[in-house]
Specification:
The chain has one domain. It is built from two helices and three strands, in the order αβββα. The chain starts with 8 loop residues before the first helix and ends with a helix. The structure holds zinc ion (ZN). The site of zinc ion (ZN) has 7 residues, from loops. It comes from Arachis hypogaea. GO terms for molecular function: zinc ion binding. Keywords: Metal-binding, Zinc, Zinc-finger.
């Protein structure tokens, strides 16, 4: 892939924003149909007792077409997963 190596991990770390807790926010990835595969900076205490709502997109706005494709993939994946569960149950 051309240009995929242009972003080194060190340059990403250097631009990491600080959240409301004062710590650097790691890049996380959304796996929901609203924003499939889109990356954002979120508090490192996200999902824990810490009530920090820090949120900042890392990726620029992706194309709507890209959303459609990933959303379909997620749906397919979900379908396969539940099918697999059914197969395991019936054994
Ligand atoms: Zn925080």
């Amino acid at each position: 892939m051309q240009g995929s190596s242009s972003i080194s991990s060190s340059s990403v770390n250097a631009s990491m924003p600080h959240c409301h807790c004062g710590v650097r926010s790691p890049i996380r990835t959304v796996w929901k149909c609203d924003y499939p595969g889109r990356r954002f900076y979120g508090c490192s205490g996200y999902g824990t007792n810490k009530r920090c709502s820090f949120f900042q997109w890392y990726d620029p706005d992706p194309l709507a077409r890209y959303f459609d494709v990933i959303c379909k993939l997620l749906e397919t994946n979900e379908g396969i997963r539940s099918e697999n569960m059914e197969l395991k149950k019936s054994r």
